[in-house]
């Protein structure tokens, strides 16, 4: 285990450089890092998560991470507030949400309840990242918007639009606009 964790720390350091992101991802490191997320010590998990985050900044590694099944691990960590990995999971999730395959995998993992809960109760940074993921998942997806509304997103987002970071306020405002549009469509269909 110690050797694997040392390797993760090395990959974390190497993955900072853009030219290394491609080579490390192509070499198949992401599945091994994902495994360490489950099995490592707290320090090993953090190093693995940071390496995955750095690697996923490169567009080509986002698909590799999705294929490795990283989204399920991230959702698990987001649901375990006491596990100490919520920050890292949301940061990676926010990057993956900007990629088509990532957005599909995230949507299939039923993230709406936990995202709304984090927007409601999380730290400022986590609320911001959760709003970014929610925006990516809900944009252009009527079903996800309806789910968000059903899980209390309107109230959570109104609070975020008043008390969030600048980016969080923008994302909250954008999602609230989308939610208002579906309300208008719903009322037109029901009349």
UniProtKB/TrEMBL annotation:
Residue ranges annotated for the U-box domain, each copy included: 2-180
A matching Pfam family: ARM_PUB
Keyword set, alphabetical order: Repeat, Ubl conjugation pathway
Signal peptide (residue range): none
Keyword Repeat assigned: yes
InterPro entries for this protein: ARM-like (IPR011989), ARM-type_fold (IPR016024), ARM_PUB (IPR058678), Armadillo (IPR000225)
Listed name of the protein: U-box domain-containing protein 14-like
Species of provenance: Trifolium pratense
């Amino acid at each position: 285990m110690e050797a694997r964790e040392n390797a993760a720390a090395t990959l974390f350091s190497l993955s900072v450089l853009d030219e290394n992101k491609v080579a490390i991802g192509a070499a198949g490191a992401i599945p091994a890092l994902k495994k360490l997320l489950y099995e490592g010590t707290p320090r090993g998990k953090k190093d693995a998560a940071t390496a995955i985050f750095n690697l996923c900044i490169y567009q080509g590694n986002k698909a590799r991470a999705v294929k490795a099944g990283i989204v399920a691990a991230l959702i698990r960590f987001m649901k375990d507030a006491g596990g100490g990995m919520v920050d890292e999971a949301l940061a990676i999730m926010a990057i993956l949400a900007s990629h088509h395959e990532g957005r599909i995998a995230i949507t299939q993992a039923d993230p709406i309840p936990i995202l709304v809960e984090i927007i409601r109760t999380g730290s400022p940074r986590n609320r911001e990242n959760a709003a970014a993921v929610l925006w990516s998942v809900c944009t252009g997806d009527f079903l996800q918007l309806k789910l968000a509304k059903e899980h209390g997103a309107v109230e959570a987002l109104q609070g975020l639009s008043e008390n969030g970071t600048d980016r969080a306020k923008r994302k909250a405002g954008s999602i609230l606009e989308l939610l208002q549009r579906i309300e208008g469509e719903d009322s037109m269909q029901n009349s």
